Amino acid sequence: MSDASYRDAIFSTPLDRVARFSFDERVVACFPDMIRRSVPGYGQILAMLGPLARRHLRHGGHVYDLGCSLGAAGLALAGQLPPDAFRYTGVDLSPAMVERAGETLGAECPEHALTVVEGDIRDLDYRPSGMILLNFTLQFLAPEERDAVIAHLHEALEPGGVLVLSEKVVAEDEQDNAWLVERYHDFKRANGYSELEISQKRTALENVLVPDTLAAHHARLAKAGFARSLTWFQYLNFASLIAFKE
Ligand SMILES: C[S@@+](CC[C@H](N)C(=O)[O-])C[C@H]1O[C@@H](n2cnc3c(N)ncnc32)[C@H](O)[C@@H]1O
Ligand SMILES: O=C(O)C(=O)C[C@]1(C(=O)O)C=C[C@@H](O)C=C1
User: Coiled coil where (predicted)?
Assistant: First the structure.
């Protein structure tokens, strides 16, 4: 398979029936472009992973990247930390993502201990870890499955460990939310997406990506046993939280 990444044009032509969004081969082929043009602050969040690991991960500690897609977080960490600073396991449910991520990480960071495995984060046998990344993945689980996953992650973390949770969020106030969603669509327009692409992608994500409020995320983290959590980044309706295990 070639390692070329294409421009996202998945929703650029009118579709009779817009299928549910899925992480298939077509999405894999354009994913780096899609996520960069669709997630406000994506690059800034990745750029902070090295500094967060330097501050919160013991030397040589293990990092999970759950729903790793093409392993961008692993690449970001490898670009910022020496090979002996951490071990990384990316996990993803999509075989197409895992195949491509394994090729990329092996080719780009041969010195670092970066592994990618196919797996479902809902029933993974977690090993003890110092840092767990959940970047734009929890939002794709059914809402009723989210508490149990976060509770498992809390159990898997070593004392002093951190969970970084990045998500699309919904504002509590309906008017605020409408404003944020409109500005998010402006963000997509500014990044070259057409009205048709924006509206068909929105349909494809309906009932597939179900965002929570920030308050619901913090409440879930507290219920799972995290001593403290805070929102360290927000750009429109996309946010990143960090939760600390005592
Ligand atoms: C928006 S992408 C994540 C982006 C990625 N974390 C990054 O930083 O580039 C969501 C990913 O979660 C994966 N996923 C969804 N449900 C999952 C599950 N139950 N177990 C593992 N991976 C899952 C999808 O296959 C997809 O690759
Ligand atoms: O395009 C959107 O509306 C999004 O919500 C962006 C989003 C995400 O947040 O995960 C949705 C699907 C793709 O995986 C990439 C980004």
Answer: none
